[in-house]
Amino acid sequence: MSEKYISDWITKSYLEKLFFNPKSSLNKYQNIIDFKIEPACLEGSNFSSVLLRVTVKLCNNKSVSLIVKTIIREEVASDVLINQFNVHEKEIFVYAVILPEYAKIFNTNNPFTPFVYDIDHVNSAIIFEDLSKKGFVVADRVKCLDEQHCEKVLEKLAKLHAGSMILNYKNPDIFKNCSIGMVNRNVKLLHDYLNVCLKIARDEMKSWHNCQKFISKMQILEDSLVEKACCVFDFNTEKDTFTFLHGDLWTSNILFKYDDDKILNDAMLIDFQMSSFGSPVIDLIYFFFTSAKDHIIMDKLDKMLEFYHENLSKNLEEFQFSHIIPSLDKLKIEWTNKYFHAFISAFMFRPFMIYEGKADISTIMGTHDEALEFKKKLFSYKPTKNLLQKLLPIFEDNGIFKNV
């Protein structure tokens, strides 16, 4: 196992304290005989954290599997994510404070996140149930998600958003620690990343079919790119529907479960490090333009938005939401107002998410020679190039290059 995956604080003594804590649901198990630690996710699926699977061997040939999520502290880019985005403290707050309030609304364990056994503030770690033991798996990020999988995600996302609308009226202060979105004005590393991606994409477009007219527009867009991207996350209390946003809803942050006939029957959302509050369309746009198959992005988004709205309304009605339920037309207006996020998601995030090759966070976010060469590969990768060529005219029709 790579050194960066080893957490020397996970010892038998540590696990015994966890298992024998009278307040823990793990205290029903017997004495610990041994344990094994191994990586819990494939390389390229997680960029700012270490995910470990800890298999604990008990008496009577029984075992319990845990997922331990903690911090990568080695790379500059990871350090920025940890300190400037405050990703781990934010996620701990979400699991310790916000999501337990959801459980009260739904009167059960959260139907969209894994169960949390313990939160370790000393080691900045969260200990989850291992959903793989219940049959949950991560979908192939390279192949992206079909219509059936997208709808299952939207069902869960609608519950997350609906619950937050109810909570916001009961206790609006609960979300105050989640004010910083994924794209914001304070993180220069991200600004550099966006600008570098735009420049490399523009250079690669010189060889793309029927895209020459967009090259000059992309070049001029550099002056306003970061500000336009940040404006998406500016919350307008008069125009925007308030929801708690997952913030980083893409294929690798979703687990799916299938029945014995391999029919999809459930999904769980994981990784709330980039969560914030804002219009629900921010989550929707990011999800579709990073994770949905091409034909859904090109032809099915209206249908998908309607499906989401039906589920959002159903959840709010079920829990007797006493305020105005946002109409589908209102969501469409917010979609239009936040549509620049589609450009950012498609050009700046989807390329590395669906790329077959592997890279660490430093290579993805960096501007050193190796990082620049990697980004050139992203925009020459055929699946990425094919989709972006089709999206450029659509982006133009939707005002992305307006005033450019």
From TrEMBL:
Pfam families per record: EcKL
Domain called CHK kinase-like: residue spans: 126-318
Highest rank taxon of the organism: Eukaryota
Protein name: CSON006815 protein
Biological source species: Culicoides sonorensis (Biting midge)
Gene: CSON006815
